[in-house]
Amino acid sequence: MHLEQKIQLVFIIALVGLCFYVLSPILSPFLFAALLAYLGDPLVDRLEKRMSRTFAVVSVFIFIIITLILIVMLFIPLISEQLSKLIGKLPGMIDLIEKNILPTIQDKFAAGSAASSDDDLILNTLKSNLSNLSNIASKLFGWISNSSGFVLTLLANIFLVPVVTFYLLRDWDRLIERIHHLIPRRYEAKVSQIAKESDNMLAAFLRGQFMVMNSLGLIYAIGLSVVGLESAILIGFIAGWLSFVPYLGLVVGMGVATALAYFQFGDIMHPLGVIITFVIAQALEGSVLTPRFVGERIGLHPVAVIFAVLAGGQLAGFAGVLLALPVAAVLNVLVSHAHVAYQHSKLYN
Predict the structure, then answer these.
(1) In degrees rounded to 5, what are phi and psi of residue 348?
(2) Where are the transmembrane segments (predicted)?
(3) Where in 12-166 does DSSP place strands (E)?
């Protein structure tokens, strides 16, 4: 590759990166639609063998809409009820913390010597924040419900994502073919090989991770319901969906569920049941779910996943978080090819 070609390539990459950075505030619905189209394309390709592409896309959309309607009818009212009960219990939980836990902390601070002014400041700040927590939560929900800009943006995204997904899904093969024709012929074979490997890894990782997240959410919800936790379904699925970042769903879900079980029952056995539920779920994830749905050969290292999510959020906000794991999976393929090229280079030898 000549110097002029290298300069042109760097300029194109920099220009694309700048566009993504500048447009990141409005990219979220388009990226989410592209992700849905990518995940739905194999199903549409299968249906296309028996019908036209447009009719196959319409069939997939009808199936998705029926599924979403069933989810809304079955789960949303139940989750909304559990969320309302959880918010209603906040004042009682705060009162219990102030009466039982804060005095214990204060005694710990004051053990052996009189409490310092810094300790008093910490405790007073903690008390004031706890007393204002319910008011802050109610004000936050009120602001969200009364904010016309927020509601309009949310409704626009809800309407925009299905429309963009439909057109992307209908023309997906055509778009991929056009991108393929843009590749310089000299590098077409190598780029196609890398793209094929990246596609295999991305498809297996994203679809497998989606199955693992929902399976974990179902296991958590069932286990916490058996324990008797009132917010079992809400906490269970939130913990399952947060599991795309390694150990985040486990830490957040088990911490919140254990605390709520203690506040609800006031004993040790129910929080212990919560811990047992999460331990069993993690054992099933490691031995059954991840090997079955994701597979060891494409699993990204937990540290790489955490770094990718944080870096994506820092660089491009919510759009970056959506892109983080797909980009990390593709970079994993690129790094493996770069490693092979390095081993055959003059620098290595």
Answers:
(1) -70, -40
(2) 12-39, 51-76, 149-169, 217-238, 244-265, 272-294, 306-335
(3) none
- CA dist 53 and 40 (Å) reads 12
Tell me how far apart the alpha carbons of residues 308 and 324 are, in angstroms, rounded to a whole number: 5
Element (DSSP H or E) covering residue 170 = helix 148-170
The helix (run of H) or strand (run of E) holding residue 342 is helix 302-343
Q: What is the pLDDT of residues 308-322, one digit of tens each?
A: 778 877 776 666 776
Radius of gyration of the chain from its Cα atoms, rounded to whole angstroms: 25
3-state helix, strand, coil in the chain (%, to 5): 90, 0, 10
Q: Tell me the pTM.
A: 0.64
Report the Cα–Cα distance between both ends of the chain, in Å, rounded.
22
**Residue whose C-alpha is closest to residue 201's, from 44, 32, 331:** 331
**From CA 115, how far away is CA 106, in angstroms rounded?**
8
pLDDT tens, residue by residue, 97-156: 666 666 666 666 555 444 455 555 555 555 555 555 555 555 555 555 555 555 566 666
Collect all residues with Cβ–Cβ distance below 8 Å to 345 and sequence separation of at least 6. none
